[in-house]
Every structure is written in structure tokens, then in C-alpha cells.
Write a structure and sequence with these properties.
single chain; 221 residues; alpha+beta; 2 domains; 5 helices; 43% helix; 18% strand; rod-shaped
């Protein structure tokens, strides 16, 4: 029969089992079979200070190496998280796309705003158009009889011209055409509405003037 005796940290010839040290350093416990009849003082295996020092140094190196590898893994994970952002080329592509869209969208939006203001101008003279049409019907279609505000007031009781917020309105002598001139918020364009006397109704011919930049894209006419 044999018994197990703890003898500290022996040489490499003994079987070792690990246990945790209070200082975090792994020590080794050796179990050496001894005959039952041997005295406790006849221990064949003695603890070797040199072996113990070498074991501690080797374990310290292993522990440090493990910490280094763990730190390397952490840095790799951090690098992968950082690489999830946008690169400079991707940002430049996005900026270029935004610039192209802006170059197309901004002029179209400006034209839309301008057309909306001109539409408001044209709508605002609806009462004046009605007064001219009634005056022409009562005066046998004679344009010169309805070419001033005074004649319209005398004939159909027209109260007077109200200028729209984005332009100015005037009647053309002899033709009774209504001319709208764009205000400062609009390009220096004009919209002319000339009455055409028919058999049963008065229609209007509309035209844009004022320069090469005054087109249908600006006034909607």
C-alpha cells in the first residue's frame, strides 16, 4: 500500500498538479508514493529552490504572453470596429452625388417658385378681365371704349386696379390689353393679356415678354 505526501515543488520527475496561489502565481503540488513503513523524516523528495524559481519564472512568462495575446485580440476587435466607418473615397462620392443633385434640383425649384408668383399675378387680375369683357360687350366690341380704368368704372362700375404682390398692372390704350410687369422679386418680365372679341364671348391671348430670359419656364405663359 502507498500513501500520498505533499512535498512542495519538487523536480521534473514527479507528477504535478496545479493549484492557485494567493499571489496569482501557479504552484505545483507533487504526490510521491512512499512505503507505509517509512518514517516521515525519510522523505526522498525535497523541494528544490532552483527548480521553484525556474517554474515561477516560466509561469510568469506564460502569464505575460497570455496577457499580450489577449491585448492583441482586443486591438484587433477595436480595429474592426473602426473600419466600419466611411472611407475618404466613399465620402467624396457622396459629396459628388449631392452636388449633382443640387445642381439639378435648385434651378428647378427656383423656376417653380417664380412660376408660382406669376400665377398669383395672373389670378389677381381676374376682376379686371371680367370688367373689360363686360365693357366690350356693352360697347359693341370697341376696344378703345374700354382701354382705361375711368371708362371701365363708368361703364361697369369697376372700382379700380389692385396691383398684385409680385407685380404691377396697367391697361394699354386703344387695345385694352392688360399688362403685368414683374416686381423686384421676379425677373423683369411682362405678361400681356390681349382681349379678342368674338361673336358670343371675349377670349384672351397671353404672351410673355421682357427679354430672352423671360420664357414659359419663368412665367408659366
Amino acid at each position: 500500500m502507498s500513501r500520498l505526501l505533499v512535498v512542495g515543488v519538487p523536480g521534473d520527475n514527479f507528477w504535478r498538479n496545479r493549484r492557485a496561489s494567493p499571489r496569482g502565481v501557479t504552484k505545483f503540488v507533487a504526490f510521491h508514493p512512499l512505503p507505509m513503513g517509512d518514517a516521515a523524516g525519510t522523505l526522498a523528495a525535497q523541494s528544490s529552490p532552483r527548480h521553484e524559481t525556474e517554474d515561477v519564472q516560466r509561469l510568469t512568462k506564460i502569464s505575460s504572453r497570455g496577457q499580450i495575446m489577449q491585448r492583441v485580440q482586443q486591438l484587433k476587435k477595436l480595429g474592426r470596429r473602426v473600419q466600419k466607418g466611411f472611407t475618404l473615397i466613399e465620402l467624396m462620392i457622396v459629396v459628388a452625388i449631392v452636388g449633382i443633385l443640387a445642381a439639378i434640383a435648385i434651378p428647378q425649384y427656383q423656376d417653380y417658385v417664380t412660376r408660382s408668383r406669376w400665377s398669383e399675378n395672373i389670378t389677381s387680375v381676374a376682376a379686371l378681365k371680367m370688367a373689360v369683357a363686360q365693357c366690350l360687350q356693352e360697347n359693341g366690341g370697341v376696344l378703345a371704349s374700354c382701354d382705361t380704368v375711368a371708362r371701365l368704372t363708368a361703364t361697369v362700375g369697376y372700382p379700380g386696379i389692385q396691383n398684385p404682390p409680385n407685380g404691377a398692372v396697367a391697361l394699354t390704350p386703344a387695345t385694352a390689353a392688360i399688362v403685368i410687369t414683374g416686381a423686384a422679386a421676379l425677373p423683369a418680365c411682362t405678361v400681356t393679356m390681349a382681349p379678342v372679341v368674338g361673336t358670343n364671348a371675349v377670349t384672351w391671348n397671353m404672351a410673355t415678354g421682357g427679354g430672352a430670359t423671360c420664357t414659359r419656364a419663368q412665367t408659366g405663359v
